[in-house]
Structures are given as structure tokens and as C-alpha cells.
Specification:
Oligomer: single chain
Order of helices and strands: EEEEEEHEEEEE
Largest sheet: 7 strands, antiparallel
Strand content: over 45%
Shape: elongated
Distance between the termini: 33 Å
Length: 124
Amino acid sequence: MAINIININGLQCNPSVMEIGIQDVSAPDAGRDLTGTMHPMKIGEKQTVQLEWWEPDRTEVKNVLSRVRAESFPVSYYDPNTDTWTTKTMYVGDRQVPVRMWGTDSFGNVRAWYSKMSFKLIEI
């Protein structure tokens, strides 16, 4: 039985790769002083989720991309930090969908085959 490992804006998904990242958020005046000493001034953490699908079909590409068009949306996934399922409000970074080949079907409709689809979700 397949397990969907992430829910993006109501769509259950099972990408080929899911990579959880943790970003430290620093205060606006953080940085290095004149001696080169770093003052990170950490004020919080945010998570990212890098997703990649290998050889997705056209329907899957359309369905997934339609769910990440909003300015922000809910994302539920298994969080390795807490060892539990979590839901966070996220937005999407740049989306890539490289075309492996394209052609026409017997009716003359253009058809594309994709090598992968990938993007990063970033916590608000």
C-alpha cells in the first residue's frame, strides 16, 4: 500500500524525493562586526521542504502545480524535528519542469513528457 508522505493544499502526494531543511532566521542587524566576529542574533527557525518527482505524468504535473499557485497554503508532512506529523503555512519557490521530449498524438495534439518536476516549499 502506497503512503502519501505530504499533503500540499489538500492534495495527497508521494514525490520521489522529499528533503526537509531548517533555516535559522536572524535579526535584521545581525552580521559580522569590524573584527570579523559573527553575531547571528537568531530570532527563530523556519522549515523548507524540497520536493522532486521523477518522470511525472502530465496530469500529476498539472494537479501539483495548480495547488501551489496561491500566495500561501497549508502543507502537512512528517517532521523529523518533532517525530510527528505537522502542518505549516508555506509558499513555493521557483518551479522547474524540464521537458524530456514532446510530440503530437494521432489527433495532432501536442504532448509533452517530463523528466522531473521540482520546487521548494518555504515556511511563512
